[in-house]
Amino acid sequence: MPQTSSPLRPTLVLALAGTSLLALSLTAHAQDQAAAASTEGTTTLEEIVVDGGSGGVITADGYVGKSSATGAKVDTPFLQTPQSVSSVTAQQLKDRNPQTLLDVLAYTPNTRTTAYGFDPRFDSFTVRGFDVTYNGVFRDNLRQPGAGSSLFKTEPYGLEGVSILRGPSSALYGASGAGGLYNLITKRPTEETLREVEVQYGTNNRYQGQFDFSGAVNDTDPFYYRLTGLARNSDTEQVGVPDDRLYIAPAFTWKPDEDTRLTVLGEYSRTKTGGTAAYYFDTTTGKVTDFFAGNPAFNDSVQNQGRIGYEFEHRFNETFTFRQNVRASTLDIEADWAFAYAPNAVDPTLIDRSAGSFEERLSAIVIDNQLVSEFDTGAFSHTLLTGLDLMKLRYRSFNGYGVSPPLDTNDPTRGDPMDRIPYTERVDQDQWQIGTYIQDQIRYDAWTLTLGGRYDWVSTDTDSTDLVGGAVSANDQSDRAFSKRIGLTYEFDFGLAPYASYSTAFSPNAGYNQETDAPFKPTESEQEEIGVKYLLPNSNTMLSAALFNIDQENGLYYEVVDLPTGPANIQVQRGKLRSRGVELEANTSLDNGLSLTASYSYTQMKIIEGPVGTVDNDVSSTPRHQAALWAFYTMPEDTALDGLGIGGGARFIGASYGDDENTMENGSRVLFDAALRYDFAAIDKKMEGLALQVNATNIFDRRDPVCSAGFCYKDQGRTVIGSLKYTW
């Protein structure tokens, strides 16, 4: 591979060394100052899920998120954040018992989690019509990059919650998408002792065991730990597609005084599923069949991933606080796939299948350094954030293409064993990114003015090698951009907070265009948004509404493209897209035992510039209307139904088009979910901590087809999972 140079690399090396030395010096300073630690100015919050510094952790009461560091990188009340924000709290996770990240997000506003139907391979979803799978998923306020099929899988049991910021957000976060970002918040050590074990059994022979332990290491030292783990063996509704997983996540916190904290977060998981989960789409009838498009005997996908990082925070005095968040992560995936695409020319009972094997590896290091300065200038109160973050990404892929024995419609579940297909191409990519940013939250009386700006430098080197002919294609690309945000909010005494904002996003894209054999251009976007948030007085209820307009250029999407090896569903870039719409959301947890979350969104997603035949059309699989309602009620104590909790929900997904030419349509649908929980302590106090819970999704087993970019899937069928949990 040819050696290339980049002016970013020596800068990054020096920055890494400097930030590490700074962290060490601050740690030593914290030890020297431990005896003089001061708690002056601290605030007791209504409920703190976990103390996570700048990781984006949610302050919540039941279903109602009140503040998070996701919207501003410093803990900020939602009422003062000049963009649309939402949260999935720990209580919501407990009541709904989600099994995938898509289940976690299913009830959040304007989030499309069913565009690819049943597909356990990826956590692919959109918000406000834009795909955020590659550039909108963050972990603990640090970017979680993806490329090709290398996408980190999320285990919901390892999450404390999710904090969501909708709309372009590059002024703080750099590489992020037009729709917004989803900050996945890892479970952290707790000062209170936590011990929990659980077993689950469910549909499709789903066996799962999990545990979660946390607390102080001993009674004298300021050390806290958490260890979360899971093992699962499961089939799925699709032959040849398992859903097996091993997961372990250790965490450790050192808190020598109230001004200093170091938290180390680790994770390892191994997941086995299928190389494809799609159904065969019959182009002659325009319908999705019941035939599995893959080859059950040639459909393995095994992914190993791990990450280790830390969050360091030190408060020097009432004015200055330094934070450094670091994470190193790696992912390896090896898979085989087959795809049925057309009737055999000789035997109409057979369907020809293309096939392939691939192997990918992605590794990344992300560092975010922050200095928070809190001070006053006359009548104005400032929270000034300055930062420097860095990312190094390394992506490598091997691909081989061929054919599989055809699908026999008389015996459609039969597997046809095959050898792995030899690799014919290799891609190596290095991406370096440096971003520096500044944000000032200026408060005057009931007004909050948020001003932010960021400059990014990105260098991407891509080598593509023909493993058969030996030809090498090298592409070096340098990108830079300035991103900004300006927002204004006003808080009335009775809890109403209108706001307006303008923000932009810049996102370099990992991976490469298989059609042009070149790296992707950066994706750029801008948004105008107005809205209102209302925290009802004397009621734990939050209401919000937002109107938005987003323009995006050079976005990444999947399309069916005729490659020399045959048709393939690959990533391509489009000219310009525009998304306009409205979002409504309500969350409440009342003293009478009722908790509820509800949302409605209307989104018009148009292709402004694109391929011939698509201009002014709707983007495929983007419904105009979506709505969701989930409620959970815990029966009163000292009644005949004491200990019982019951929940239910409905998700409406409106009609959409199955391709960008708008020649085929996905019908609207409503999917219903339910939950039932019983606490055995209501029978006998000796059984305190023992609880049985049953969760069902899509309880009426509606399995309609859904097509996106011309590829078709089916909604996941009914699943029922019973859980027996013991905490002490």
Q: How would you describe this structure in keywords?
A:
single chain, globular, 728 residues, Maltoporin, Chain A, 6% helix, disordered N terminus, mainly beta, five-stranded mixed sheet, 22-stranded antiparallel β-barrel
Write a structural description:
The protein has about 725 residues and is mainly beta. It has one domain: Beta Barrel (Maltoporin, Chain A). The chain is built from 4 helices and 43 strands. The model is unreliable at about 1-50 (pLDDT under 50).
Q: Please name the fourth-level CATH homologous superfamily.
A: TonB-dependent receptor, beta-barrel domain
Number of domains: 1
The number of helical runs is 4
In percent, how much strand structure appears in the residues?
A: over 45%
Total strands? 43
Main location: membrane
Signal peptide: 1-30
Pfam family, one: Plug
Subcellular location: Cell outer membrane
Helices and strands in order, then pairings?
Layout: H1 8-32, E1 59-61, E2 64-68, E3 76-77, E4 85-88, H2 90-96, H3 101-105, E5 111-112, E6 126-127, E7 130-131, E8 137-139, E9 142-143, E10 159-166, H4 170-173, E11 180-186, E12 194-202, E13 206-216, E14 223-233, E15 244-257, E16 260-273, E17 279-282, E18 287-292, E19 301-315, E20 320-343, E21 350-377, E22 380-408, E23 425-444, E24 447-466, E25 472-490, E26 496-507, E27 512-513, E28 518-519, E29 523-535, E30 541-553, E31 556-563, E32 566-573, E33 576-589, E34 594-609, E35 625-634, E36 644-653, E37 656-657, E38 665-666, E39 669-679, E40 690-697, E41 705-708, E42 711-714, E43 719-727
Parallel strand pairs: 8-11
Antiparallel strand pairs: 1-2, 2-3, 4-10, 5-6, 6-7, 8-9, 10-11, 12-13, 12-43, 13-14, 14-15, 15-16, 16-19, 17-18, 19-20, 20-21, 21-22, 22-23, 23-24, 24-25, 25-26, 26-29, 27-28, 29-30, 30-33, 31-32, 33-34, 34-35, 35-36, 36-39, 37-38, 39-40, 40-43, 41-42
